[in-house]
Amino acid sequence: MERPTPALPKLNELPSRWARFCLGVERFASVDLKRDFTRAGCIVACSGGADSTALLFTAALLCRKNSGSLSAVHLNHGLRVEADADADFVRGLCEKWNVKLISESMDVSALARAKGCGLEEAGRAARYDLFARARERTGAAFVLVAHQLNDLAEDQLMRLTRGVGWPGLGGMNAVDDARHLLRPLLLTPRVEIEAFLNACGQSWRVDASNSEPNALRNRVRQGILPALRRENPGYLHAAERLWRQARLDEAHFEALLAPLAPHGEAAGFELPAGMLDGLDTALRSRLFKVALDKLGPGQARTDSLLLLDRLWRDRAFGRRVQFPGDKEAVIVKTGVRLRPIDRKKLSG
Q1: pTM tops 0.85
Q2: What backbone torsions phi and psi does residue 188 show, to the nearest 5 degrees?
Q3: Domain for residue 246, yes or no?
Q4: CB 37 within 8 A of CB 59
Q5: Is 154 part of a structural domain of the chain?
Q6: Strand order in the sheet with 100-105
Q7: Domain limits for position 141
């Protein structure tokens, strides 16, 4: 049974443990991520679940302390009978805490049919489209999303399953500058988030679809991650260490590759032969990934990058390698061309 939403307290009115919890979120964002959302305009993506409710609560406390502006955004996907109640719950939070809410409804099932994709992909696209429009409307610097440490551990395992290489195996970034996203709770365990809400007398909504075994993430959440935590009770801390090491290595490779990375339009790039031949496989394959990432979403798998590198070394002119996100690389005499795949032209 949901409890009434309590009034928003002042930070110094919280028990000391939970005041430190909030200040820890602020410190992670401002010191580790160098993104102080508490003094800039920000939007919290709030579904009404425990994670996003805690993020909205924490952001409201911190933004009030530091005079930052705050809004919330909610998308009703129209997929569950509880969806309208979820929207009402978020609306109630925002009214109680004096947070401006941007809320929309969308038939995600119809969107998935129109796009020819799955419900999860269609819902994600709809959410991020709304986030972008809400940020533009409010002038906010960041959109805060509520991924936390359990989500990060699940993401690492799913990347391992898909064959993602290093440092991508470290999991999702806490900062996505291209989409102006920030994940301030990324290193906070789910159990700590729920304990925080319970201590503050704040309820949340439960999405029953998170227990359905048809999605890979749910199978990882219900089966694989609990099994690993039984083997190693400190597994979540190991996931955090892996994430931190990946970020260090990622920053190192980015610094090495920055002078070599292609610039220009998303219509495509050509990496010249002379530059490619001056690199070893480790740097060359990472340069391929940097260029592919500039063409849009879609995680390149390690085996595909290594195949591309082998084809280049063999001078297999005319050979193509396709990558997720409708991207391809073509071996030519002057280098490697990376470009989007025009599906309409192929089908026409």
Answers
A1: yes
A2: -105, 125
A3: no
A4: yes
A5: yes
A6: 100-105, 70-76, 42-45, 142-144, 181-182, 175-176
A7: 11-231
Asked if 146 and 73 count as a contact pair (C-beta separation under 8 A), the reply is no
Q: CA 252 to CA 246: how far, in whole Å? A: 10
Q: Which two tokens stand for residue 287?
A: 């340069």
Q: What would the pLDDT profile of 142-190 be if each residue is shown by its tens digit?
A: 999 999 999 999 999 999 998 888 888 999 999 999 899 999 999 999 9
d(CA 125, CA 117) in angstroms, rounded, equals 11
Q: Which of 234, 199, 236 is closest to 221 using CA atoms?
A: 236
For 276-289, the DSSP string reads HHTS-HHHHHHHHH
Extract the tokens encoding 219.
């199978």
Strand partners, 43: 71, 143
Structure tokens, 185: 């709770």
Q: What is the CATH number of the domain that holds 196?
A: 3.40.50.620
Q: What are the strands, taking DSSP E only, across 199-319?
A: 269-272
SS3 298: coil
